[in-house]
Target: Tetratricopeptide repeat protein
Amino acid sequence: MKKLLIFAEILIIILILQCLILSKNYLIGIPILCAYLAYKLYKMRPSILAFKGNIAFEKKHFKKALNYYNAATKISYSDNFIKLRYAYIALNCGELDECKRILDLVPFNQLNDMLKNSYKMTDALYSWKSGNLKMAIDVYENIHNSHQHTLVYETLGYLLLISGDYKKALKYNEQAYDYDKDSSIITDNLAQSYFYLENYEKAKELYSELLLKNEKKPSFPEPYYYYGLLLNKEGNKTDCIKYLKEALKQREAFLSELTHEKINKTLASL
Model:
């Protein structure tokens, strides 16, 4: 159906251009073309607003991102992809009620498989932040069984870590690392798994790779925090403090258990 609509739109443009070329009266053809382009821009409003919202989100201008997406989803013909993206951004910004409100607007049974997975993943994260970690893990494990993807590996690996089942987390995060060694989140999840199972040598090896060998440094606090703890265990308090302070420079994420308060408490205890 979507391909048919695109074909129809291309056909309309061709017909308008033919009218312009064949007709000697451009005063008729040009207004028709302008009217059509204005109509297309009008129909693209949700996508344009969502695009602006994505840019704001990437720049960490979260209030702007929420405002753009809120405006996009208020348009009656805003599609489900935009709504699901807004639900995730709202959740990421700690707006649990808004996330749930948007999810309730999306007709799950009418979604394609890709959007159904997107819905389930956001809804699972909502369940976790609402106090039901087990449900979130169950949902992600079911998704993983049919859909291996870096994002699934990153999220499920972290959920298993915070569940405290470190042996299960290690097994899964080793599998995730084999799948995508370039993901800094997966590398961090695996390093944390080793850390909590007291395999400090392997944890340090991974964190050294992540923090000292990569040109692009992680933009989340966990690697700096745990690498600092490892240095402290070696008696290197000075560098430990340096990395803990670096962890504080990273944004505190709602979808993380590591808070600035926890980092500050660790610093105060040294």
Q: What stands out?
A: DSSP finds 15 helices and no strands in the chain.
